Automatic annotation (TrEMBL), chain A:
GO cellular component labels: plasma membrane
Protein's GO biological process: transmembrane transport
Keyword field contains Membrane: yes
PANTHER family xref list: ABC TRANSPORTER PERMEASE PROTEIN MG189-RELATED, ABC TRANSPORTER PERMEASE PROTEIN MG189-RELATED-RELATED
Pfam family, one: BPD_transp_1
The organism of origin for this protein: Scopulibacillus darangshiensis
InterPro entries attached to this UniProt entry: MetI-like, MetI-like_sf
Gene3D superfamilies: MetI-like
ABC transmembrane type-1 domain: residues covered: 74-264
Protein name per UniProt: Multiple sugar transport system permease protein
Top-level lineage group: Bacteria
Family: Belongs to the binding-protein-dependent transport system permease family.
From TrEMBL, chain B:
One of the Pfam families matching this protein, by short name: BPD_transp_1
Residues annotated as transmembrane: 29-55, 98-120, 132-152, 181-202, 238-255, 291-311
Protein name (database record): Multiple sugar transport system permease protein
Keyword Iron belongs to the record: no
CDD domains registered for this protein in UniProt: TM_PBP2
Domain ABC transmembrane type-1: 94-307
Principal subcellular localisation of the protein: membrane
Keyword Transit peptide listed: no
InterPro entries with a match to the protein in the record: ABC_transporter_permease, MetI-like, MetI-like_sf
GO cellular component terms, A-Z: plasma membrane
């Protein structure tokens, strides 16, 4: 073996060992979901279930249990993530277009406020935001889970910077052809910003689906919980955790993200590099 | 917005004016409509809460009462008077949070860099697989990650103690000692987030100029020399970015201790976010909780500012 081949060989061996650290917990979740509680709590290296049981899943799916509403929770999570993401994409793309291209009044002040707001960490808005929604009677609604994300400046900034670097010539000629602002936006700006819009969509979707703290403090009504809150509640709520059920619920809750990951892994990776290097 | 300079400024102005003229014919209203939805959300869910938060922090504000008593800066004073209840809670948890930051930030940065280098050096056909394996926990939710590792670290049923027993080491009661509890939190956080930073590092490593390495090869440089004198300086900006982002993340730590240790044993893994939420939702003192949030926000804000200045500098 040449030096380079040998180097790659050892790196591959080393990477395989480290990969176990990442893969084993995931396999452990999956297999525990199919174990009885007695077996899940038995201890020892009993990786493979003695006999696969679907009892944990049957419990979660059963209409007689009032604690867990797994389909409702999954539905809530997907609804909030999809609606929130679409909303953010529309709002942010329009705002970025206006700021980068149109004659918006007080543009300098708006841009300044956006930049300042990016310096302010979430912990500062957390409690007053909660109080506002509580006073408006909007706790335990989809509104409380979706609306705050419309104030995110990340997408506006990302798209604004992209459009600022993007040549104006095409839009200019469209203007000369008599295209309306709306048409320019829809037929030129949106298609050309696609990579950034996809980035914004992916980051927002993952963020909303996996959002933890905000739904945890604003949602306590069972039927309105997201699946993330459901898993967290099952963990911290009862005195004795049934690990079989907990892992079954975790597995179900991860299915949408696993599908997203498998379909768009390359796109997610690209999106992360977009966010890192602005 | 230093990057505007990439564009010919004079040309940009004429272009903007042409489009602006077009819109002006329909009045500024049309262009204002494009930004209105954002301004609405931004005002309602960002600006108003910030101002409201500052106001609340100046009151004795009970979550369950309607009457609020104006205190001025008393909540902040209490926070910094040693011996007061909030002072004790806030700074002991801040100390825990800082401890986590001091351990996790260098650890996560080094681990993600090592993984990035490793992924770049494995046999080419496995690159994609290893990248995916090291990265996938990032798309899982904190709840799921917490649940998985709670089971793995479970003293009786957990996989980790089973492994330790198999090689002749006694079971460890992970959540019985501060060191064990922090180990749980750090390992869980590492598993969850290291892939994200790894992606940033892989991208940075792939952008290092090949010519530098070729020149070093001609000179017969050692691998260590190439790493120290070419790779590290080239990826330094991303490294700084990762360090700052990890620091911000560390001060926001909440879910992992909540799910894995509940702040225990005692209060040894209780972090600042937990003390703020306890103050607000268990003691119902929104005023002092807001003051604590603003002070913590100030600390995090310093790091965000550093990151912002550094991005600015990079853009020139």
């Amino acid at each position: 073996m040449s030096y380079y081949k040998r180097k790659r060989f050892y790196a591959t061996i080393f990477a395989t060992i480290i990969a176990l650290f990442f893969v084993v917990p995931a396999i452990w979740i999956i297999l525990t979901a199919f174990k009885t509680d007695a077996e899940a709590l038995r201890g020892g290296v009993n990786f493979w279930p003695d006999h696969f049981t679907f009892k944990n899943f049957m419990y979660l799916f059963s209409s007689e249990n009032y604690e867990v509403a797994v389909f409702r929770w999954l539905g809530n999570s997907l609804f909030v993530s999809v609606v929130g993401t679409v909303l953010v994409i529309i709002i942010d793309t329009m705002a970025a277009f206006a700021l980068a291209r149109l004659n918006v009044p007080f543009k300098k002040i708006i841009l300044g406020l956006i930049l300042i707001s990016m310096l302010i960490p979430n912990v500062i808005t957390l409690l007053p935001q909660f109080l506002n929604f509580a006073n408006a009677g909007l706790l335990n609604t989809y509104g409380v889970m979706i609306l705050p994300v419309t104030s995110s400046t990340f997408g506006v900034f990302l798209l604004y910077q992209f459009l600022k670097k993007f040549p104006v010539e095409i839009e200019e000629s469209a203007v000369l052809d008599g295209a309306s602002t709306w048409k320019i936006f829809l037929h030129i700006v949106v298609p050309n910003s696609k990579p950034m819009i996809v980035t914004l969509g992916i980051i927002t979707f993952i963020g909303l689906y996996n959002d933890f703290l905000w739904p945890l403090i604003t949602i306590n009504q069972n039927s309105m919980k997201t699946i993330t809150v459901g898993v967290a509640n099952m963990m911290t709520g009862s005195l004795s955790i049934s690990y079989g059920r907990l892992m079954a619920l975790s597995l179900l809750s991860s299915i949408p993200m696993i599908i997203v990951f498998i379909i768009s892994q390359k796109q997610i990776v690209k999106s992360i590099t977009h966010t890192g290097i602005k | 917005m230093a990057n505007v300079s990439l564009f010919n400024p004079a040309k940009r102005i004429t272009n903007t004016t042409k489009i602006a003229k077009k819109t002006r014919s329909k009045g500024q209203l049309a262009s204002f409509l494009f930004i209105l939805p954002f301004l609405l959300g931004f005002t309602l869910f960002c600006i108003i809460p910030i101002v409201y938060g500052i106001i609340i922090s100046l009151f004795q504000w009970n979550l369950l009462d309607k009457g609020h008593i104006f205190l001025g800066l008393e909540n902040y004073k209490q926070l910094f008077i040693s011996g007061s209840y909030v002072n004790g809670v806030f700074f002991s948890t801040l100390k825990n949070t800082a401890l986590y930051a001091v351990i996790s930030v260098p650890l996560f940065t080094i681990c993600s860099l090592v993984l990035a280098i490793l992924v770049n050096n494995v046999s080419k056909r496995f690159t994609g697989i290893f990248r995916a394996i090291f990265f996938f926990p990032y798309v899982l939710s904190l709840s799921v990650v917490g649940a998985a590792w709670a089971l793995i670290f479970n003293p009786g049923a957990g996989f980790l103690n089973a492994l330790l027993n198999a090689i002749g080491i006694d079971s460890i009661q992970w959540n019985a000692t501060p060191a064990g509890a922090w180990t749980m939190i750090i390992v869980t956080s590492l598993w969850w987030g290291v892939g994200f930073n790894m992606i940033l590092f892989i991208n940075a490593l792939n952008n290092v100029s090949e010519e530098l390495y070729e020149a070093a090869n001609v000179d017969g440089a050692s691998a260590w020399f190439k790493f120290k004198d070419i790779t590290l300086p080239s990826i330094q900006p991303i490294m700084l970015y990762v360090v700052i982002m990890s620091t911000i993340g560390a001060f926001n730590l909440y879910g992992q201790p909540l799910l894995l240790t509940a702040g225990g044993p005692g209060t040894s893994t209780k972090v600042t976010m937990m003390s703020i939420l306890d103050e607000a939702f268990i003691r119902h003192q929104l005023g002092s909780a807001s003051a604590m949030a603003i002070v913590l926000g100030g600390i995090i804000g310093i790091f965000i500012l550093l990151q912002y200045l550094f991005i600015k500098r990079k853009e020139g």
